[in-house]
């Protein structure tokens, strides 16, 4: 997890360094390992890095050979190695082994269509100084966040809403329609947020800001093409897709593992990771009966012969950390499981840097009635 931010002044005003530093400062938790800033007249880019791939040469904002293209990128490109080889064959020269640099050269090669070739979770922004434009995109399912504020004077973006709100001219005013949506659906549908004037870039979308005009376009849509095949075809197909996905997600130059609840989703991830090598898993629960799955996680870990680190959340801790959790959320969150996720992520961070989880399985496989 990294943090990106930036300001583009639509009038002839230089971006102040202190603006970018304040925006970065509230996102240090997203990237505590390294930070970077780029300023050029009306544009300012900021970055907070969590080192995962190419620990020593992946500094951002990253640029191309002649310096005309600068990028800030949050996420991971899972097919970056194959894209890198393809770009090298076409004459592109790489100075690092990071997935970030692949985005730079892919943009040089394909322009706005570069995003169609990316497989991963990402949000990024490119400043093209020759074309005088900002180009940014968000992954197909909106895994990585992207907030923005657009007005006649400036365009501001960041990985977190609180980063944008460090600018004093941006008001903290609740959007009444968004509040109604939240109370109805238990979330605020994109592109709106709980605050007026701050928006989210929708999943599978990119934006172009040129000549002070913002345009947003969709680059991908889900398509369903039913096939009349035997059940075994789909069973084996899903197994291979899961195995491939876990292998690609575990590309890392730092220690990795996974969360383990003992349920179907996380147990499958743990079993497939075990095929790659020894791993550590992490579980949290409560001492109150009926509210904990630690025993199921313990039995799963024993069966798979993997390490399982367990942590009990006390009622006092639950209440103590609640204000901090609310601060991290940026917007209202109706899912109480988010609290357990916070504690299991905290426990995992003490031993590893990258963790896989079963998040998203219910949406894909219809785990609850609301997805039917």
UniProtKB/TrEMBL annotation:
SUPFAM superfamilies referenced in this protein's UniProt entry, alphabetically: Adenine nucleotide alpha hydrolases-like, N-terminal nucleophile aminohydrolases (Ntn hydrolases)
Pathway stated in the Swiss-Prot or TrEMBL entry: Amino-acid biosynthesis; L-asparagine biosynthesis; L-asparagine from L-aspartate (L-Gln route): step 1/1
Taxonomy of the source species: Bacteria, Bacillati, Bacillota, Clostridia, Eubacteriales
UniProt record similarity statement: Belongs to the asparagine synthetase family.
The protein's name in its UniProt record: asparagine synthase (glutamine-hydrolyzing)
GO terms of molecular function: asparagine synthase (glutamine-hydrolyzing) activity; ATP binding
UniProt-listed InterPro entries: Asn_synth_AEB (IPR006426), Asn_synthase (IPR001962), ASN_synthetase/amidase (IPR051786), AsnB_N (IPR033738), GATase_2_dom (IPR017932), Ntn_hydrolases_N (IPR029055), Rossmann-like_a/b/a_fold (IPR014729)
Gene3D superfamilies: Glutamine Phosphoribosylpyrophosphate, subunit 1, domain 1 (3.60.20.10), HUPs (3.40.50.620)
Any single biological process term in GO: asparagine biosynthetic process
Domain Glutamine amidotransferase type-2: 2-212
Gene, per the UniProt record: asnB
Organism, as annotated: Candidatus Syntrophonatronum acetioxidans
